[in-house]
Structures are given as structure tokens and as C-alpha cells.
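pls design
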């Protein structure tokens, strides 16, 4: 019995040693690379494929880095405000103190001014979505779709909002007459608009595949367009001693 127990102990030790050696190898397989150096501070990033983009607080400049070649590019010209978004080789941002939308294509090295009086862009495929530059006169509010192939801008909503796009879907939020907000979806293929959710507040709206996510009253929510189901993902503990559990 002692010999049998000893054999079990040896086998267990060997197994643990195996996981320590090979587990460490797996853990160390990933490589962390610092892309910014010195005094530069980064406040917005975007990545797609092998293309990494970011903005630096020094003049709010936009920068690009190719993970495949290791080439780094400082995109000279118009600095960025707000966040940046990328798709493929392209990155879009708000410039001119929030008064214009710009795009940079890392495959060509070209920077293009897409639209004046616009802000908060997102990009997918050949489409860019954005809203108007903020104005106290809300008669000019709008969400716009820009086609990079035809260079045509189309107004799809009368709202000031930070839109998101994925495939043929454009999402945004807008106030309704009940002191709440509707999350709206526009289908590029059918030109149809629908309301997918009504909430007390909306921020950080984003979408991917069938899922749309947002922050509402400090919690994360998601909506699945396949099941037509809205789900509360996180639950915030209230400042009082009571815990709200739905």
C-alpha cells in the first residue's frame, strides 16, 4: 500500500510539474509591446485587424501603427476630439474643435475631410455615420449616413446622438415625448427605422452582430435583435443599505 501511495504521489507530482512548465509557457506566449514613449499620453484608441490607431494629448494628434510591419505613422493635419473609430485600414474622428469629420486610410496615406458641421463618427465597410455639430437650435439636429463609394450624405434621423454602425444597421438614441429615450435602428438595405428599446437614459451605445449594448442609469444593458430580448447585464449597488435585485 505504501508503494502504491508513493506511485500516486510521484504521478501527481509529475502532473503538477507538467502544468507548471507548459502552463507557464502558454501564459508567457503573449507579448506586450509599448507603442507610445516618453511624455506622450494617450486618451483614445481603436484597433481593426493589424491596424492600431490612437490619439495623443500632445496636440491631440492621431497616430497609426501596423502590427504586421511595425511601421508607425503620425497623421499630420487635423487633430482629434472625442473618441476615434476604425474599420479595415480606415480611421475616423471629429476634428476642427468638434466641427468636422475626418478619415485617414493607412493603405494610401490619404487624409480626407468627409463633412463639415458634423461630429461623433463611426465606420463600417463603405459607410460612415455621424451627427451634426452641437447647436443650441435643435432644429438642425440629425443623424447622417455617408457612402464612401457615392460620396453621398443621407439624413436618416432628426436627432443629436452618437450613432453606431455594424453591417447594415445604424443605431442611435433620441428623446421621446415621455421624458425617456428611444434606441432606434435604421436598416440601410430596406431604409426602414424601428425602435428596439425605450430607456430612462442612454450612453456609450455600441453594436456588433445581433447585439446592441448601452449604459443606462449606471448599468450595462443589451438587446438581442434575434430574440428581441432586452437584458440587464450589470446591477449597481445603491448608495443606501438596500440592494436592488430584479
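designed seq:
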Amino acid at each position: 500500500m505504501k508503494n502504491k501511495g508513493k506511485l500516486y504521489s510521484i504521478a501527481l507530482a509529475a502532473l503538477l510539474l507538467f502544468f507548471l512548465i507548459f502552463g507557464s509557457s502558454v501564459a508567457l506566449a503573449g507579448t506586450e509591446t509599448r507603442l507610445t514613449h516618453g511624455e506622450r499620453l494617450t486618451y483614445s484608441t481603436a484597433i481593426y485587424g493589424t491596424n492600431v490607431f490612437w490619439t495623443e494629448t500632445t496636440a491631440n494628434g492621431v497616430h497609426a501603427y501596423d502590427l504586421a510591419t511595425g511601421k508607425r505613422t503620425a497623421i499630420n493635419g487635423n487633430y482629434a476630439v472625442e473618441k476615434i473609430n476604425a474599420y479595415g485600414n480606415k480611421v475616423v474622428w471629429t476634428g476642427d474643435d468638434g466641427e468636422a469629420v475626418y478619415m485617414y486610410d493607412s493603405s494610401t496615406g490619404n487624409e480626407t475631410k468627409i463633412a463639415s458641421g458634423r461630429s461623433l463618427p463611426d465606420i463600417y465597410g463603405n459607410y460612415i455615420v455621424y451627427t451634426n455639430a452641437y447647436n443650441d437650435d435643435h432644429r438642425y439636429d440629425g443623424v447622417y449616413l455617408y457612402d464612401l463609394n457615392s460620396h453621398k450624405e443621407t439624413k436618416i434621423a432628426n436627432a443629436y446622438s452618437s450613432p453606431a454602425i455594424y453591417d447594415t444597421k445604424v443605431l442611435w438614441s433620441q428623446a421621446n415625448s415621455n421624458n425617456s429615450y428611444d434606441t432606434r435602428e435604421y436598416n440601410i438595405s430596406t431604409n426602414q427605422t424601428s425602435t428596439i428599446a425605450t430607456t430612462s437614459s442612454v450612453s456609450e451605445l455600441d453594436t456588433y452582430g445581433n447585439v446592441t449594448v448601452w449604459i443606462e442609469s449606471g448599468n450595462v444593458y443589451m438587446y438581442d435583435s434575434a430574440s428581441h430580448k432586452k437584458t440587464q447585464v450589470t446591477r449597481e449597488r445603491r448608495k443606501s443599505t438596500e440592494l436592488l435585485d430584479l
